[in-house]
Amino acid sequence: MEKTKPIKRHVALQPLSRQHHFGLLFSWKLRKGFHKNIETKRLQQYAKWFFKHEIEPHFKDEEKYLFPILEADNELIERALKEHRRLKRLFNNTKDPERSLHQLEEELDAHIRFEERVLFNEIQKVATEAQLKKIEEIHSNLEETPEYDDPFWE
Ligand SMILES: [Fe+2]
Ligand SMILES: [Fe+2]
Questions:
Q1: 26-80: per-residue pLDDT in tens?
Q2: Which end of the chain is more exposed for a tag (fewer CB within 10 A), N or C?
Q3: Ligand 1 centroid from CA 2, angstroms
Q4: Which residues have C-beta under 5 Å from ligand 1, the single-atom ion?
């Protein structure tokens, strides 16, 4: 396997990277739920809660402050926006929740890894100090997400 030197995450992007960690945890918890045969309704409730508290604000921040740093027709941005649309649909699909939850578990992971390994590196390469400073200010006082009251994964 090709070894690439990890690029140090710029301090301005660290809060969003921390949220990525919670996103990966969300997928891990869903997987736990599948293995433990937790009923779909409970998993769905959790996904709904996570979307509202974490995913929706995270996507909005990325789309508003981060993605415009690259050109709108940049193929990485096009891919990221397409994946946001797809993930939102999966989070909000009530017709076939079981299938959607399984797809979510996989596709959220993949989206986060794409951003961490490719997109964020590209953005911090081209961003000006002023752009990064602005992102840093916006995210310096992010509120913490409350605990979820039904930890089915434990
Ligand atoms: Fe994203
Ligand atoms: Fe993200």
A1: 999 999 999 999 999 999 999 999 999 999 999 999 999 999 999 889 999 999 9
A2: N
A3: 25
A4: 62
Alpha-carbon gap, residue 101 to 91, rounded angstroms: 8
Question: Residue 39: is it exposed, middle or buried by C-beta count within 10 angstroms (0-12/13-18/19+)?
Answer: exposed
CA gap 70, 41 in Å, rounded: 40
| Tally of residues, the chain | 154
Query: What residues does each domain of the chain span?
Result: 11-139
Record the tokens describing residue 67, joined without a space.
Answer: 């993605």
Instruction: Say which residues have a Cβ less than 8 Å from residue 102's Cβ, sequence separation at least 6.
Output: 34
Q: Which ligand is nearest to the CA of 17?
A: 2
* Distance from Cα 108 to the centre of ligand 1, integer Å: 9
